[in-house]
Specification:
- The chain is an alpha+beta fold.
- The chain is built from five helices and four strands; from the N terminus they run E-E-H-E-H-E-H-H-H.
- Strand 1 and strand 2 form a beta hairpin.
- The longest helix has 13 residues.
- About 16% of the residues have low confidence.
Amino acid sequence: MRKPLRPCSYSGCGKLIAGGLFCPDHRERKKAPSELGYDHRWRRYAAAYLKKHPICCDPFLRHPNEIRNAEVCGHRIAHRGNESLLWNPRNHYPLCASCNAYQCAKFEGGFGHTRHAPPRPSTDPTLRTAFDKNIYVAEPLVEANAKEKQEHR
């Protein structure tokens, strides 16, 4: 038994579709990670960053009093293709998979959620996290690039 056709969810579009939210005209193609700047250079940088910072900084207090291994080199402010935000070491922090998924869903519109403003540092000293204290600051990118060039010679 087939599902009944329903209208496309795009405002003003009346095309009937069998599944999904939008018709092919209004469905956005998801960009590949390499199109977003996550290429071999990023993977190498992120691996080095996580080696230096192996513990999740738990910026959203998702697992207080629990130490988890960082699996992702996250961005405090979503870069959305902005190269300076993508590569700025002060914009990076180590996250576990849970914190990364939470940030993606809550603040970046991932998994079909509405985008929200990123969290601001807490004024309550009992809720201060590594995110607020900024203890994970990588060496400046210029120095990292200089070291990388020397290694390839």
